[in-house]
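step: validate -> pass
step: tokenize input -> pass
step: predict -> running
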Amino acid sequence: MLDIRIWDVGAALSIRIKTPNGQNHFIDAGRSSSFSPAEHIYQSDWGPSDCVDYLVISHPDSDHIGDLPNLVHYLKRPLVLRRNKSVPDEHKWGSLSSDYQKVFKDLDTTYSRTIDPVDDPTLPENNGGVTIEGRPLDWNEAGRSDDSSIVMAYRYGPTSVMFPGDIEADGWARLRQKHERPCAGAIDGSETRILVAPHHGRSSAYSEDMIEYFNPDLIVVSDGHGRGETDRRFQTKARGLYRGDELLKFVSTKRGGRKRIMIDAVGSLRMDEWKPSNWL
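step: predict -> pass
step: emit ->
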């Protein structure tokens, strides 16, 4: 089972992915003023032998790295860190006036060695059969933090999920110019496709080319827990999946601030919603 948990913590984002063989992957580490996903996981769902096998920082804006101090404190330093190394230091670490900036600098400067294939969490033979790819723009091509986001894709069995970070339409167009088929190895051949809307579903992030390229069956809109404007095209452009008699084209975090998607090897899909008293 590929277990994906998307926390929409205010205007921030934090995604935990548990692979079929029990690896813990995280894409970004956002938090709200009152809720830390990392602390919650530690208190309710973390065993003594658990570790962060793979941490992806899509881009180093505060809403994507604000929970790093808690992640390192409660869940220990990740075994493997993925970030866009081309982003200049002043944009990665800022003024170093915040704890999360200091933690990110420490991680960024100490994770420098090449990963041994035996330990590489992105290889299917190491993670229970999941194909993983990530593709960023070089900073000189992106020119801004959002568009330097690492676009990630995971495929398990016949199902692919794409996590584009905060890349916006212009950045996606430049990424496609450089890489005609970004993350193709984790997308091609999949029968069911789920897209986490880029940049919380804002209009500036809507790209018709991204929709045509990925051709999603379902779009997950992580939209500020009801705050902020969401482009309605993210609600209508997916092909749709049937839940009973209902054709579902998008799901939103507006109701409870979080979504859980569970995918098995043959493509069966289950989604759970949470109430604030039951985050897992």
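step: describe -> The chain has nine helices and 15 strands.
step: cleanup -> pass
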